[in-house]
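Ticket #407: bound-state structure for 7TS.
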Amino acid sequence: MGIFDIHAVRKDFPILEQEVYGFPLAYLDNAASSQKPIQVIEAMNDYYRQDNANVHRGVHRLSQRATDAYEGARSKVRDFIHAKSDKEIVFVRGATEAINLIAHSFVRPMLNAGDEILISHMEHHANIVPWQMLCDEIGAKLIVIPMTDRGELDLSTFDDLLTSKTKIMAIGEVSNALGTINPVKMMTRKAHEKGIPVLIDGAQAVPHMPADVQDIDCDFYVFSGHKMFAPTGIGVLYGKEALLEEMAPWQGGGDMILSVSFEKTQYNVLPYKFEAGTPNIAGTIGLGAAIDYMNSVGIEALAKYEQDLLVYATNKLTAMDGIRIIGTAENKASVLSFMIDGVHPHDVGTIFDQQGVAIRAGHHCAQPVMQFYGIPATARASFAFYNTMEEVDALVDAIEKVQELFA
Ligand code: 7TS
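RESOLUTION: The complex was predicted; output attached.
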């Protein structure tokens, strides 16, 4: 595509062409789930039309084609996040499942009462609750890196929070509620200096910026397909090969074994050891197609375009009376959380909807962030590279409408 062409891009997303209540749809809820280009939809349709069969087990032609497509997607993921090897790419249901897998198979066996798990105040519930469950079970402690009013991590005490008791640090690269981009590379380096393994939750990062697990040097990296233009029900756990090798499987079943007898089961090699049962083959193929699509648009190009959208929207909202932006970090991805004075975010969301503007109103599965600001919820517009400046204008019009109605 060369230079970023928003008109060409939008043609690939047929869902965006519709009207809602007589208004052109402005889909600004991409942090919850993104839309899918026809290339992704067709890749999955083609699989079901032509190649549908189970993987890794058929001698027949269809099974071989399904396996090639499934494993081909794994290599695309490897390149996309710059992992060293396909063995480091485990397909899971999504970021949530990946974090639970690490909690269970990596951290649980080495966790003792009194040990610590380090997260931050701005994590999604998916990167809080699995650790809390583990802490409750073992008697370990959940330690939380604080945040500032702007919605940045307060790293003034960070060095002290990394202790000899810390068994893992698990941090979101981009906050879904605030848009903050966290300095995960520096934080990983500091954790490693004290021998602490690191998991990075990249769910809100991969749709918006280049991903490089070797550059961050994290031990684990997790994300979901559905936020990066691929289907729901498919996600990725990246883990350094040496660590995955040492870990016991989480779920048992078919495909994750080399041999089974009633006396003993020998587990399969990486990454299959962690992929029990028939996987989400079509979803995986869709994820591969989404990566091809993002590469064809150009990840640097879409990142730059989204920054322009974010700046445009931030300036517009900042200039309005009665609007409070929640999350004003210096480095942000394209998430804009805000409050309209005197109006509950749920009412905001409902009135927006009647003007075709789709946003999320709620706590965004980040209730500690809401508690920090002393608010029940925010209205959140989150942009993807297929959004336009006109859609930002529609957002502004919708805000004015709310203010009129509640005046
Ligand atoms: N981590 C982050 C940072 C997220 O934003 C989300 C989902 C998850 C993990 C969990 O992903 P899942 O695909 O396993 O559910 N975030 C949101 C959101 O912001 N609105 O809806 C879901």
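RESOLUTION NOTES: The mean pLDDT is 97.
TICKET STATUS: resolved
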